[in-house]
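Bench log, entry 3. Co-assembly request; chain sequences pasted below exactly as received.
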Amino acid sequence: MAIGVFDSGIGGLSIHRALVEAMPDADFLYLADQKNTPYGDKPGEAIVDLTRAGCETLFAAGASLVVLACNTASAVALRRLQSGWLAEYRRTSGRKVNVLGIIVPTIEAATGLPWEHAADRRGPKIEKLDVIGVFSTAATARSRVYEIEIDKRRDDLAVFTVACSGLADMIEQGAAREQMRDLIASYAQALKARIGRWPNRAILGCTHYEIVADLFREVLPEGTELISQPAPTAQALSDYIRRHPDYEIGHSGLRRFFTTGDPGAQPPLAEAFWGGPLRFEAV
Ligand code: DGL
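Structure output for the full assembly:
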Protein backbone atom coordinates (compact mmCIF):
# COMPACT_ATOMS: atom_id res chain seq x y z
CA MET A 1 0.00 0.00 0.00
CA ALA A 2 1.12 3.53 -0.73
CA ILE A 3 0.39 7.23 -0.36
CA GLY A 4 -1.39 8.53 -3.46
CA VAL A 5 -0.89 12.10 -4.61
CA PHE A 6 -3.40 13.58 -7.06
CA ASP A 7 -3.48 16.70 -9.22
CA SER A 8 -4.86 17.76 -12.57
CA GLY A 9 -1.28 17.83 -13.83
CA ILE A 10 2.29 18.60 -12.83
CA GLY A 11 1.36 21.19 -10.15
CA GLY A 12 0.97 18.54 -7.48
CA LEU A 13 4.66 17.71 -7.88
CA SER A 14 5.30 20.77 -5.72
CA ILE A 15 3.47 19.05 -2.86
CA HIS A 16 4.77 15.61 -3.78
CA ARG A 17 8.40 16.76 -3.56
CA ALA A 18 7.88 17.96 0.01
CA LEU A 19 6.05 14.75 0.98
CA VAL A 20 8.88 12.62 -0.40
CA GLU A 21 11.45 14.73 1.46
CA ALA A 22 9.51 14.36 4.71
CA MET A 23 8.90 10.61 4.29
CA PRO A 24 11.74 9.29 2.10
CA ASP A 25 11.08 5.60 2.85
CA ALA A 26 7.33 5.70 2.19
CA ASP A 27 5.83 4.29 -1.03
CA PHE A 28 4.25 6.94 -3.26
CA LEU A 29 2.00 6.89 -6.34
CA TYR A 30 1.43 10.16 -8.22
CA LEU A 31 -1.46 10.66 -10.63
CA ALA A 32 -1.73 13.61 -13.01
CA ASP A 33 -5.11 13.92 -14.74
CA GLN A 34 -3.49 15.52 -17.77
CA LYS A 35 -6.23 14.36 -20.10
CA ASN A 36 -8.61 16.73 -18.31
CA THR A 37 -6.29 19.51 -17.16
CA PRO A 38 -6.91 22.35 -16.37
CA TYR A 39 -9.60 21.92 -13.72
CA GLY A 40 -9.78 25.58 -12.72
CA ASP A 41 -12.19 26.67 -15.45
CA LYS A 42 -14.49 23.66 -15.19
CA PRO A 43 -17.90 23.60 -13.47
CA GLY A 44 -18.02 22.26 -9.89
CA GLU A 45 -19.77 18.98 -10.74
CA ALA A 46 -17.13 18.13 -13.34
CA ILE A 47 -14.36 18.78 -10.80
CA VAL A 48 -16.10 16.49 -8.27
CA ASP A 49 -16.48 13.71 -10.85
CA LEU A 50 -12.89 13.94 -12.08
CA THR A 51 -11.50 14.04 -8.54
CA ARG A 52 -13.54 10.99 -7.58
CA ALA A 53 -12.23 9.14 -10.65
CA GLY A 54 -8.66 10.12 -9.75
CA CYS A 55 -9.06 8.80 -6.20
CA GLU A 56 -10.54 5.55 -7.52
CA THR A 57 -7.59 5.09 -9.86
CA LEU A 58 -5.11 5.64 -7.03
CA PHE A 59 -6.97 3.33 -4.64
CA ALA A 60 -7.06 0.66 -7.37
CA ALA A 61 -3.31 1.11 -7.92
CA GLY A 62 -2.69 0.45 -4.23
CA ALA A 63 -3.01 3.78 -2.38
CA SER A 64 -4.58 3.72 1.07
CA LEU A 65 -4.34 7.48 1.65
CA VAL A 66 -4.81 9.98 -1.17
CA VAL A 67 -3.61 13.57 -0.86
CA LEU A 68 -5.39 15.98 -3.18
CA ALA A 69 -2.33 18.05 -4.15
CA CYS A 70 -4.66 20.46 -5.91
CA ASN A 71 -6.42 23.47 -4.39
CA THR A 72 -9.24 23.29 -6.91
CA ALA A 73 -10.06 19.65 -6.09
CA SER A 74 -9.59 20.27 -2.34
CA ALA A 75 -11.82 23.37 -2.37
CA VAL A 76 -14.55 22.09 -4.64
CA ALA A 77 -14.64 18.28 -4.31
CA LEU A 78 -13.15 17.10 -1.01
CA ARG A 79 -16.14 17.65 1.28
CA ARG A 80 -18.50 16.15 -1.28
CA LEU A 81 -16.36 13.02 -1.58
CA GLN A 82 -15.88 12.69 2.19
CA SER A 83 -19.58 13.06 2.92
CA GLY A 84 -20.89 10.32 0.63
CA TRP A 85 -18.77 8.43 -1.81
CA LEU A 86 -15.81 7.69 0.49
CA ALA A 87 -17.93 5.94 3.16
CA GLU A 88 -19.57 3.89 0.42
CA TYR A 89 -16.16 3.00 -1.07
CA ARG A 90 -14.90 1.83 2.33
CA ARG A 91 -18.05 -0.21 2.88
CA THR A 92 -18.02 -1.96 -0.50
CA SER A 93 -14.25 -2.52 -0.70
CA GLY A 94 -13.76 -3.34 2.98
CA ARG A 95 -10.56 -1.28 2.83
CA LYS A 96 -9.34 1.43 5.17
CA VAL A 97 -8.80 4.38 2.84
CA ASN A 98 -9.01 8.15 3.14
CA VAL A 99 -8.69 11.32 1.09
CA LEU A 100 -7.02 14.43 2.51
CA GLY A 101 -6.72 17.95 1.09
CA ILE A 102 -4.26 20.81 1.23
CA ILE A 103 -6.51 23.69 2.29
CA VAL A 104 -6.46 22.87 6.02
CA PRO A 105 -2.65 22.96 6.43
CA THR A 106 -2.52 26.14 4.31
CA ILE A 107 -5.11 27.90 6.48
CA GLU A 108 -3.21 26.80 9.60
CA ALA A 109 0.01 28.21 8.13
CA ALA A 110 -1.67 31.48 7.12
CA THR A 111 -3.42 32.03 10.46
CA GLY A 112 -0.78 30.52 12.73
CA LEU A 113 -3.66 28.74 14.48
CA PRO A 114 -4.87 25.15 14.67
CA TRP A 115 -7.83 24.30 12.42
CA GLU A 116 -10.13 23.84 15.47
CA HIS A 117 -9.62 27.47 16.54
CA ALA A 118 -12.58 29.86 16.20
CA ALA A 119 -12.16 33.64 16.36
CA ASP A 120 -13.39 35.29 19.56
CA ARG A 121 -15.99 37.66 18.15
CA ARG A 122 -16.76 39.28 21.51
CA GLY A 123 -13.51 41.22 21.68
CA PRO A 124 -13.14 44.89 20.66
CA LYS A 125 -13.45 45.62 16.94
CA ILE A 126 -10.07 45.12 15.36
CA GLU A 127 -8.80 47.19 12.44
CA LYS A 128 -8.05 44.75 9.62
CA LEU A 129 -4.49 45.65 8.86
CA ASP A 130 -2.84 42.47 7.68
CA VAL A 131 -3.88 41.72 4.12
CA ILE A 132 -3.38 38.32 2.48
CA GLY A 133 -3.60 38.07 -1.30
CA VAL A 134 -4.47 34.70 -2.79
CA PHE A 135 -3.57 33.68 -6.35
CA SER A 136 -5.73 30.76 -7.43
CA THR A 137 -7.73 29.18 -10.23
CA ALA A 138 -11.18 30.56 -11.05
CA ALA A 139 -12.93 27.60 -9.37
CA THR A 140 -10.97 28.02 -6.11
CA ALA A 141 -11.65 31.78 -6.17
CA ARG A 142 -15.36 31.12 -6.75
CA SER A 143 -15.47 28.76 -3.74
CA ARG A 144 -14.21 31.66 -1.52
CA VAL A 145 -12.64 28.98 0.68
CA TYR A 146 -9.68 31.11 1.79
CA GLU A 147 -11.82 34.15 2.65
CA ILE A 148 -14.37 32.04 4.58
CA GLU A 149 -12.00 29.79 6.50
CA ILE A 150 -9.50 32.51 7.44
CA ASP A 151 -12.28 34.87 8.52
CA LYS A 152 -13.69 32.17 10.85
CA ARG A 153 -10.37 32.05 12.70
CA ARG A 154 -8.82 35.51 12.55
CA ASP A 155 -10.76 38.76 12.39
CA ASP A 156 -7.59 40.82 11.97
CA LEU A 157 -6.77 39.35 8.54
CA ALA A 158 -8.39 40.49 5.31
CA VAL A 159 -8.24 38.11 2.36
CA PHE A 160 -8.52 38.98 -1.33
CA THR A 161 -8.35 36.35 -4.05
CA VAL A 162 -7.51 36.89 -7.71
CA ALA A 163 -8.45 34.20 -10.25
CA CYS A 164 -5.48 33.61 -12.55
CA SER A 165 -7.23 31.98 -15.50
CA GLY A 166 -4.88 30.41 -18.02
CA LEU A 167 -1.80 30.38 -15.78
CA ALA A 168 -1.91 26.73 -14.63
CA ASP A 169 -2.37 25.66 -18.24
CA MET A 170 0.63 27.73 -19.35
CA ILE A 171 2.79 26.06 -16.69
CA GLU A 172 1.41 22.67 -17.70
CA GLN A 173 2.35 23.34 -21.33
CA GLY A 174 5.80 24.63 -20.35
CA ALA A 175 5.24 28.15 -21.77
CA ALA A 176 8.07 30.68 -22.09
CA ARG A 177 9.06 32.33 -18.80
CA GLU A 178 8.56 35.90 -20.13
CA GLN A 179 5.03 35.01 -21.19
CA MET A 180 4.26 33.57 -17.76
CA ARG A 181 5.91 36.52 -16.03
CA ASP A 182 3.75 39.00 -17.96
CA LEU A 183 0.57 37.14 -17.07
CA ILE A 184 1.57 36.87 -13.39
CA ALA A 185 2.41 40.59 -13.35
CA SER A 186 -1.02 41.44 -14.75
CA TYR A 187 -2.76 39.32 -12.07
CA ALA A 188 -0.61 40.89 -9.34
CA GLN A 189 -1.62 44.35 -10.57
CA ALA A 190 -5.29 43.28 -10.63
CA LEU A 191 -4.96 42.12 -7.01
CA LYS A 192 -3.30 45.38 -5.99
CA ALA A 193 -6.08 47.37 -7.68
CA ARG A 194 -8.74 45.36 -5.81
CA ILE A 195 -7.07 45.81 -2.41
CA GLY A 196 -6.00 49.42 -3.01
CA ARG A 197 -2.43 48.50 -1.99
CA TRP A 198 -0.08 45.55 -2.10
CA PRO A 199 -0.91 42.61 0.22
CA ASN A 200 1.39 41.98 3.17
CA ARG A 201 1.53 38.27 2.41
CA ALA A 202 0.43 36.05 -0.44
CA ILE A 203 -0.78 32.47 -0.81
CA LEU A 204 0.07 30.66 -4.03
CA GLY A 205 -3.30 28.90 -3.91
CA CYS A 206 -2.73 26.64 -6.91
CA THR A 207 -0.04 23.99 -6.72
CA HIS A 208 1.13 24.75 -10.26
CA TYR A 209 2.14 28.29 -9.18
CA GLU A 210 4.69 26.97 -6.68
CA ILE A 211 6.72 25.72 -9.68
CA VAL A 212 7.13 29.36 -10.81
CA ALA A 213 7.22 30.90 -7.32
CA ASP A 214 10.32 32.87 -8.36
CA LEU A 215 8.21 34.74 -10.96
CA PHE A 216 5.69 35.70 -8.27
CA ARG A 217 8.59 36.95 -6.13
CA GLU A 218 9.80 39.06 -9.08
CA VAL A 219 6.50 40.84 -9.57
CA LEU A 220 5.48 41.30 -5.93
CA PRO A 221 7.17 43.98 -3.81
CA GLU A 222 10.39 42.80 -2.22
CA GLY A 223 9.87 41.11 1.11
CA THR A 224 6.26 40.01 0.47
CA GLU A 225 6.01 36.74 2.36
CA LEU A 226 4.76 33.82 0.25
CA ILE A 227 2.75 31.39 2.35
CA SER A 228 3.84 28.11 0.89
CA GLN A 229 1.72 24.95 0.81
CA PRO A 230 4.22 22.07 0.43
CA ALA A 231 5.94 22.27 3.84
CA PRO A 232 2.78 22.60 5.98
CA THR A 233 1.10 19.84 3.95
CA ALA A 234 4.06 17.50 4.48
CA GLN A 235 4.04 18.26 8.20
CA ALA A 236 0.27 17.71 8.43
CA LEU A 237 0.47 14.39 6.55
CA SER A 238 3.37 13.12 8.69
CA ASP A 239 1.37 14.00 11.83
CA TYR A 240 -1.75 12.34 10.43
CA ILE A 241 0.11 9.10 9.65
CA ARG A 242 1.68 9.11 13.11
CA ARG A 243 -1.77 9.51 14.68
CA HIS A 244 -3.30 6.82 12.38
CA PRO A 245 -0.74 4.01 12.17
CA ASP A 246 -3.47 1.63 10.97
CA TYR A 247 -3.32 2.96 7.39
CA GLU A 248 -1.17 0.47 5.52
CA ILE A 249 1.77 2.26 3.86
CA GLY A 250 4.76 0.42 2.43
CA HIS A 251 8.29 1.57 3.19
CA SER A 252 10.28 0.46 0.15
CA GLY A 253 10.76 3.99 -1.24
CA LEU A 254 8.54 3.18 -4.27
CA ARG A 255 7.87 6.11 -6.66
CA ARG A 256 5.50 5.67 -9.59
CA PHE A 257 4.04 8.44 -11.72
CA PHE A 258 0.83 7.94 -13.67
CA THR A 259 -0.95 10.16 -16.15
CA THR A 260 -4.35 9.97 -17.81
CA GLY A 261 -2.76 11.85 -20.71
CA ASP A 262 0.30 11.36 -22.87
CA PRO A 263 2.99 9.44 -20.95
CA GLY A 264 5.70 11.18 -22.99
CA ALA A 265 8.15 13.80 -21.76
CA GLN A 266 7.02 16.41 -19.26
CA PRO A 267 7.98 20.09 -19.70
CA PRO A 268 11.61 20.82 -18.73
CA LEU A 269 10.47 23.15 -15.95
CA ALA A 270 8.68 20.20 -14.28
CA GLU A 271 11.82 18.05 -14.41
CA ALA A 272 13.98 20.95 -13.25
CA PHE A 273 11.62 21.48 -10.33
CA TRP A 274 11.56 17.77 -9.50
CA GLY A 275 15.32 17.58 -9.77
CA GLY A 276 15.55 14.72 -12.27
CA PRO A 277 13.83 12.89 -15.11
CA LEU A 278 10.13 12.14 -14.65
CA ARG A 279 8.82 8.97 -16.25
CA PHE A 280 5.06 8.85 -16.34
CA GLU A 281 3.11 5.67 -17.07
CA ALA A 282 -0.27 5.76 -18.82
CA VAL A 283 -3.38 4.69 -16.89
N1 DGL B 1 -2.96 22.55 -9.52
C1 DGL B 1 -4.34 22.77 -9.33
C2 DGL B 1 -4.68 23.65 -8.16
O1 DGL B 1 -3.94 23.66 -7.20
C3 DGL B 1 -5.25 22.90 -10.51
C4 DGL B 1 -4.88 23.71 -11.68
C5 DGL B 1 -5.89 23.49 -12.79
O2 DGL B 1 -6.01 22.36 -13.22
O3 DGL B 1 -6.57 24.46 -13.19
O4 DGL B 1 -5.69 24.29 -8.13
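The radius of gyration is 18 Å. The first helix runs from residue 13 to 22.
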